[in-house]
Description:
Largest sheet: 7 strands, parallel
CATH superfamily: Glutamate synthase, alpha subunit, C-terminal domain
Distance between the termini: 37 Å
Number of helices: 1
Structural class: mainly beta
Shape: globular
Oligomer: single chain
Radius of gyration: 14 Å
Amino acid sequence: xxxxxxxxxSFAAFxxxxxxxxxxxxxxxYVGKSMCGGQLVVKPDEAFKADTQRNxxxxxxxxxGATGGNAxxxxxxxxRLAVRNSGANIMTEGAGDHCCEYMTGGRVVVLxxxxxxxxxxxxxxxxxxxxxxxxxxxKVNKDVRVQRIET
Length: 151
């Protein structure tokens, strides 16, 4: 399924395996909430000409409680991305504060800047964060073990 335009609260919530959803536009909060499978792509429409790493395309608390599936976000996510994620794989070009909070599984890849308090309460899963500004350790919750990848 392909959608065009602005999606409201909880777009693609409760997505199930075998669903393939693309949104050309932007979405509000709770995108992919409780997603348990499928693939979700959110990207700007063709008319958007600005730098995607500098623009938020999905709102706050997206992929809250997700247990499976894959998500590819072309642009930034708001605050609290992947809170309580236990199995989804999520890629985005940036995220606000409290990314991966209470995460127990899954993978999150952030290819841009992140906000403060990353990984608070995180007990599982993996997060790969591109250290764009070389200040990543200052943004990670002090209870999280960090390993730098140099290559």
